[in-house]
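U., I forgot to send this yesterday:
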Amino acid sequence: MVRWTDNINGEPDTPRGVSPVRGRVLGDPAVVIQKGAGCLAYIVSTIIKENGEPINTHYIGKNVSKPASRRLEDEFGLVKAENRKQKEHFELKPVDTVKVQYGRSETKRAITNVLGTVLPYYNYTSLAELNAVLRHYNVVADQGSEKSRMYKNNGLVYRALDEQGKMVGVPIKASDLYLKPTMKYLQKRFDKNALLRAPLKQRIKNAIDLALMKTAVTTVEDLQAVLKKENIQLLIRHNKDGSVGGLTFVDHKKKAVFNGSDLHEKYSAASIHEQLRAKTQKQNETQTLQQKQRPAQTVQKQDQTLKPAQQPKMQPRLPAKEKELPSKQGEKEAMLPSTGRGPLEVLLQPESGADQVPYDQPQQKKKRKKKRLHL
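Result:
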């Protein structure tokens, strides 16, 4: 049984066109509803066939539902589920500032699309942190100057930005937008997000630590480029004199915004600037030391690569027989007249005893006596 309704409360309405699909699902023809936007369909079925036999629901998803969904994808040209990634990240495109300059309707539609994705899902605790995210999409929330009437009445408008960050188009009141993102609404979001911020810090801190360990990261701009690869946007705030005044980190993966000092003291603008300065100084000192050691290493290599004629001649080692015993310079060793050898050689020669048998004289073997058998 199929019923159509255009009401979100589920009230039935007039039947619409249906299209049967070849094959049988749960014993009955599968029905695809050609519906429009905002329509709801109700499909009611049983697990009993018309002839009273039960329908086997064992492995129904693998054996029945999956083949049926494939046939529906092929017949109606739908996106195949198997070809899609398991997890897709929605990427919001920045507002097209070329179009918003022409009228209020384009500006309102573009800003509404951005706010609908940012406000409910990002974690921010102040208007400045919210604008850090919105500026990435060429949108800004503006309260006006502190002396303005809108600021005193806690009013808020949203405006589109061009590529240079300048406000363009017609400002849209917060009360005129779909979500009613007024300051009262945002203040509730600030209080709620403050309680959920702690677990979102760790990923940004780890990414900063790993980036600072890289040799190539020596400036804030280098750090900004490395973090961008991790889907973390680093916003640099400059003072009037051009120095770095503050750092804001926007994690588009975890959807969280933090100032550097909110993460930890060592992630503040001054601390990171000092870490990079000390790192650069250490690298320069190491490079200077290596350059000083290169000439000494070059001289040592030249000494090792001297020609054979230039190298000192080594005297050949004499065999053991030709070696002479150490003696004092200018003194000859005394020779014994009876043997014609020195006294040390005579002392070291083993004595010949009478019990020694010459090697050429064979030893006599003892004969064994044969045992007689007494018969």
